[in-house]
Structures are given as C-alpha cells and as structure tokens.
Amino acid sequence: MDIEKIKKEIEDLKKQKNAVIVAHNYQIDEIQEIADFVGDSFYLSKVCADRPEDVIVFCGVHFMAESAKILSPQKNVLLPEIDAGCPLADMITEEDVDSLREKYPDYSIVCYINSPAAVKAKSDVVCTSSNAVKIVKNFPNDKIIFLPDKNLGSFVKKQVPEKDIVLWEGFCITHYRIKKEDVLKAKNAHPEALLLVHPECRPEVVELADFVGSTKQIIDFATSSEKKEFIIGTEMGVLYTLKKKNPDKKFYILHPGMICPNMKKNTLESVRNALLEEKYVIDVEKDIMEGARKALLKMLELS
Ligand code: 13P
C-alpha cells in the first residue's frame, strides 16, 4: 500500500466532489492527519451543521454520521465503513423510550448523542459528554430521564444533585474495561501525573480523577496545564493530538485495552473509496428526521 498515493487521491477526490473530511478524536492517526476537522462529538456536530461543502465524509461511527445528516439534511453524508457502529447506542430502542414515557409521564428525556436517530426523535433534547451537565441543569424540568449511558448519567447526577434523574443501564464497552485497581496501579507508577478521564468511565474511576471531560476537553486541559505528566482514561486515539500539541509532556494510557474496535474500522483506503464511490450514504427516515433534528437543535440552543 502506497500511503502517499492514497493521500493524494483523497486530496484530489475531495476537491473534485466538493467534500470535507471530519474525524473523531478516536480515529487512527493517519485519518486524523488528513482530516479537515478533528474533534469530539459536540465540536464535530457544530462543524457539520455549518460547512458549505456538498459532501461530508464522517470518519467516526454510525450515530455520528447520522447526527451530521440530521443537522445537514441537504448534504451527502458518507460513512467510510458501514458497520462502524456503537454498542452503547444499540443498548436502547425507541420501544424502550415509549415504555419510559409511559412509566414516567412528567419526566423529560435527555438523550446522549451515542444513540440511534429513532431514540433521539422521541427525546426532548440531545447532549454530548462535553455539555451533558449544562443541558440537564438548563433544561426546564427538575425530573429527568438520562439515557442510554449510566456512567455519564451518574456523573451528571452528582453534578446536578438538585434534580431527580432516572438512569438507563447502557455503558461503553471500552471505557467499562477500566477498573479502580487500574487507576491505583497507574497512580502508583506515575505519582506526579494528573488523571484525566472520560465520563463514560465507571463512577469509582471518575471519582479518583483530577479532571473529567470529553475527548476535546481532555486534550484542552492537558494542553493548557503546567503539569508535565498525565494518565489518560479514554480511547487511545486521543494520544495523537495530545502528543502533537504537547511534545514536551508525557501521557500514559490508563488501560492497554482502550481501543474502540468500531472507531478503528475506518482506514485511509476506506476514506478514499468512500469519496470515489460515494459510499456509504447515510440516510434517515423522514418522520424520524424531524423529531431527531428538533432534539439536536435544542442541544445547540442550550449549550
Ligand atoms: P466525545 O464526547 O469526547 O466525542 O466522546 C464520544 C464517545 O463516544 C466517547 O466514547
């Protein structure tokens, strides 16, 4: 495989098709290197809502490309690998939301962006890991159902104790791997390092952290900190930007298994093929589109 040749093909195809390439912080280094925009779920959803190009190649997982399509319905949104899904997003269905509505009629539903469009469509507002606390605080109801991530939900519950928050039982299989013992071991090995974790980690891990935030917030925190060593509790893709922006600092990944198998499915070849063959086209049913768009726009308004 001639990497430079593929990169050149991607550059040419991008111009030819009037396309923009966006990549999540968990993508492989080579994709982050060629992407026009790299960031967390919130940053990328704002970028996609505002871009002038006709085609968006979304290097991430399915729910992210789906959210880009919902925010830019007139654009052709492409996901390079169609089976790049999210097990957490699949832990809730629209039928589950119907049952929750029936059981808790006076509660509002705050839905993490890691969810299917049909679930967003039945929710009152969407949030990401970077704005979940703010959205729950600002939403004009003291009774909230937070879904589908129970760990992000627990984090929010602690930050917003004044509200009654019901949690769903979903979790991210990658972040769930980190246990309290891993943290104690890492802190022991690197006593000078600050611990920065994603709120999808278990509550007992989050409790020991010096900073809790989205992938972008973790990168920004480490970059602006005067400290030189950091233990990182999220998917290892963040190391690309952390090291690029901070060549003089040291980063230790909290657990060797912090690799999201779905995020790692996209490759330079699949990005090239996505542009060349205009695949895989992400579409959302019209009646789902309307409700999901409303919930996503509400997030942009409240955050
Ligand atoms: P971000 O909000 O940092 O993009 O996190 C998304 C995610 O899926 C974490 O596993």
From TrEMBL:
Q: What is its EC number?
A: 2.5.1.72
Organism domain of life: Bacteria
Gene3D superfamilies the UniProt entry points to: NadA-like
Q: Which gene encodes it?
A: nadA
Q: Which cofactor does it need?
A: [4Fe-4S] cluster
Sorted alphabetically, the keyword list is: 4Fe-4S, Cytoplasm, Iron, Iron-sulfur, Metal-binding, Pyridine nucleotide biosynthesis, Transferase
Q: Locate the residues binding [4Fe-4S] cluster.
A: 86, 172, 260
Please tell me where this protein is predominantly located: cytoplasm
Q: What is the name of the protein in this document? A: Quinolinate synthase
Organism, by scientific name, is: Caldicellulosiruptor morganii
Residues that bind iminosuccinate, according to the entry?
A: 24, 41, 112-114, 129, 198-200, 215
Its annotated compartments are:
Cytoplasm
**Record field: catalytic activity:** iminosuccinate + dihydroxyacetone phosphate = quinolinate + phosphate + 2 H2O + H(+)
